[in-house]
Amino acid sequence: MRLFPPEISEIVLSNYALIIATLVGYFVIFCLISWAAKRRLSSDVGDYVVASRNLGWVVVTFTMYASVLSGVGMAGIPGTIFVIGAPFVVTALTGITISTALLWYFGPRIWVLGKEYNFTTPGDLLGGYYQSDLVRLYTVIASVLYNIAYIVAQLLAGGILLNVLSGNFISFQLGIWIIAIVVIIHVALAGLRGIAWLDFFNGMLIIVLLFLFGVVIMIAAGGPGSVLAGLGDIRNRFITTPGMIGIFTSTRIYGIAIGFSIGAIVLSPSAWIRMYSARSKAHFAKIGVLMLVLWIISHVIGTFLIGTYGRVMYPTVENPDFISSLLAFGVLPIFLATLFLIAVLAAIISTTDTYIHTLTATVVRDFVKALFVPNLNDAQEFKLNRVLTIGAAAICILLALTNPVLITPLAIFAGGITVQLLPPLVGAVTWSRASTEAAIVGPAVGMALTLGWELGFLPNPVAPNVLPGLATAFFINVFLFVVISLFTKPQSPEIVEKFHGLLAKRL
């Protein structure tokens, strides 16, 4: 099945040598980074999972940026803007602004506790504070649901991309397999340090290409105003709430921002692990500022203009997730178009390797070791991480092949799950009144309602255009967490001192 217009196929086939040479050049750099990281990798599980807590702030920022932006940001978000309009950009930027403030606040606290008590996963911190294996298990559930949803989204984007780059020679399904195999090898060989180094390179490539793409679009259209003017009769609906499909009200914008950005940038297990891996607690202010700058450039100049001009150039495209690929060949010089698609591939790889690594690390540490094999040594934990990488990838490949859906909704759903961990995190680092019972009940209800409402198993009592299910579930979680904490016993003075006392001394 052909997934893109015939004229794009002709462009690809007539420039095949250049496209293949560029692709090979990227993979040469990819292999060199993997090789260099493998040489530094020790058999210590802490080195594999959190890079020995020695990553610089620029590297940490770019690895968080590249892994979150991903195929969702470079294929899914332009496609969502194509469908919805400017309100989705407002949604993304709202969530990113809030996320930056939360990262600045929680980052140093998570880092201090991780450094002092050798925490490597979210479950280490939350399970330790609430003295509960059930709370630790919640972090595993959140990690599994979040990471699988995001990995599937990346494999879908990777299948699309390789299909486009190959001129339909590589099928969508085969593209999924190729991306998965490449990522398995990289994660198993290089650990978090290799992932972070690759993310730094990929992040630089991504931000430069998004910026150049936006500039070329403005030149081709005759300026930013001309881009919007090209929308014609739909212009006003495209740039104002409630958007093209009529549901993006102000409350819905804030509701989706809670899951889509906060859940991904601050509370996803991969972001949490990167907070542990930073070299210093003093770095988080710099990380937050640089992160905000990168995201503003990405969305204001990049994804918004791509989705908008894509609507002008290809108003009847069958699959909106293809719009960035189609537009690249439509307006960019062939080398830049190829390089842009390589940047999309880089984002996909950065995210897929990050989330497979995170998924296996949390399952091994917070499920297998914490609940079943407490005497698992470092060497065994290290080996089990590598083995489970293959199993996790196989599950995600199967889901991607059998459930080809739009990319962005998967990312929103994933963030809606992990944001349910915010109340217990607040209790562990800020509010000493928080109780174990609250940490058990609140997130459980929030996750269950998110699953029920987002997957359509339960009727949502609030209209979707007022508040999405994931946001309603989060606010119910917060309410239950506070009320139950006020009526139950807080943590022991020893635990409070171990966590809150340490933070008071170090911050």
Gyration radius, to the nearest Å?
22 Å
Our count of helices gives 21
What is the CATH architecture assignment? Up-down Bundle
Low-confidence stretches: none
Percent in helix: over 70%
Structural class: mainly alpha
Number of strand elements: 0
The first-level CATH class name? Mainly Alpha
Largest sheet: none
Structure, explained:
- The chain has about 500 residues and is mostly helical.
- The protein has a single domain (about 5-30, about 50-505), classed as Sodium/glucose cotransporter, CATH 1.20.1730.
- It is built from 21 helices and no strands.
- It has helices at about 5-15, 15-40, 45-50, 55-85, 85-115, 120-130, 135-165, 170-220, 225-230, 235-240, 250-265, 270-275, 285-315, 325-330, 335-370, 380-400, 405-420, 420-430, 435-455, 470-485, 495-505.
- The termini are far apart.
- The model has no long low-confidence stretch (mean pLDDT about 85).
List keywords for this structure.
Sodium/glucose cotransporter, mainly alpha, 21 helices, globular, 507 residues
Summarize the structure in short:
The protein has helices at residues 6-14, 16-40, 45-50, 57-84, 87-117, 122-130, 133-165, 172-221, 224-229, 235-239, 250-265, 269-277, 284-313, 323-331, 334-372, 378-402, 407-418, 422-429, 436-454, 469-487, 493-506. The protein has one domain (6-29, 48-506): Sodium/glucose cotransporter.
Which helices and strands occur, and which strands form pairs?
Blueprint: H1 6-14, H2 16-40, H3 45-50, H4 57-84, H5 87-117, H6 122-130, H7 133-165, H8 172-221, H9 224-229, H10 235-239, H11 250-265, H12 269-277, H13 284-313, H14 323-331, H15 334-372, H16 378-402, H17 407-418, H18 422-429, H19 436-454, H20 469-487, H21 493-506
Helix pairs in contact: 2-8, 2-15, 4-7, 4-8, 4-13, 4-15, 5-11, 5-12, 5-13, 6-7, 7-8, 7-15, 7-16, 7-17, 7-19, 8-13, 8-15, 8-16, 11-17, 11-20, 13-14, 14-15, 15-16, 17-19, 19-20
